[in-house]
Amino acid sequence: MKWPINNNFFYCEQQSFVIWQQQVIAHAELFAEQPAQTWLLFDADSYRFSVLFFALLVAKKSVILPQNGQPEQLAQCLEYADEFTGDTDLLPTKVLFSHDLTCNNLQALDIDEHSIIRFFTSGSTGAPKAIDKTFKQLVQEIQVLEAQFGANLNSSLFVATVSHQHIYGLLFKLLWPLYSGYDVCLQSFEYPEHLLHFIDNSTAQAGKAGFTLISSPAYYHRLVQDNVLAPVKNKFRGCFSSGGPLQAIAAKLLTEQLAMSPIEVLGSTETGGIAWRQQSHSSSWQAFKPIKIKLDDTQHLIISSPYVVEANWYRTDDRAQLLESGQFTLLGRADRIVKIEEKRCSLDEISQRIIEHSWVDECYVLLLESQQQHKRNEIAAVLVLTPAGEIAVTELGKFKFSQTLKSHLKAFFEPLVIPRKFRYLPALPYNRQGKLEKAQLEKMFD
């Protein structure tokens, strides 16, 4: 498979796609000299990562991508690899990245479409779960993204707040713009103020007028509280979100503040992209064109997808309802269905009902499993309050405040499944990938 030669410009490095491509080829020659076939790659710098990632593929090597650079995570993933490359502060490597390492040979990058990229995601046992993708599957997905959304992006500059180490960031932040010829800034903008400064500078210095933002629900939920990007809303051509559903109120506020609603992408490391939606148009999900969907007897969403290794139908952990329009709505995660004394309930549904109260901005509901033989399991909730909620909890005290929330929930649920314990945080803890740190929340009830 030939990677196309295009006119990309890397704004973070102030250099052209041609220089990047020459760096890839030069580093690939070094990897080709090494006998090791499988390489663990971690580098927090997206530009260095991009050169090493493509160099490994050009050298016909297999790539392993850990979720993060924590020592335990790297040690677990290194068991599957022959060598490491990337950030030398973490582990030693036989192939170092160098900005000065280039070649004079400009040609399309030749990559075996069957090359394996192994991702790691959190497994049900707590140990990292390995998921293999071929390079062809990744390219197929970015081709679908460009066909679906490219016409509205108007040669914009891609900017991102997410990491390239997981599949959403790799596809949207890196592979899509590089393949389709968009300019890209591979710097990660953790704070909206930094992104605003970059947009202002890029507009003033380079005349760049259009931007596409790749981000997460956690980022958007924080952004709407004080949206510093609103003054440059006319510069956005697209906003994408993945990693979890965007709250309806946040989608509504973003539509008002930025004059557009983010395009949410439903999917996972295992499945790739399944469907998309813009809540300003519909709360239902529309499957991408290559994806076929159906339900099983327990309302699990089942998909047939070219991004999944299994040739047959793949059963997801999402419960759904199919609509006559061909779209579908989500009913919550199947693994979030629990039993309390034989009463089945959905933790996601309880969470949604809590968020409907004007005092609550965000919520995570969890099951506290008792270790005592004669004591039943309990449901608990961690809340982030709205300004009105902050006032109410101060005036009422936490006991009366929680009793009021319980009264609200009695309209929907039996008393047995209403949360018995509440904890309050200024914000829910999310990691760099926009994933909720659930273990951290569980510790609040120890």
TrEMBL record:
Matches recorded under SUPFAM superfamilies: Acetyl-CoA synthetase-like (SSF56801)
Coiled-coil spans in chain: none
Record domain AMP-dependent synthetase/ligase: where: 113-277
Listed Pfam families: AMP-binding
Membrane-spanning intervals of the chain: none
Official protein name in the record: Acyl-CoA synthetase
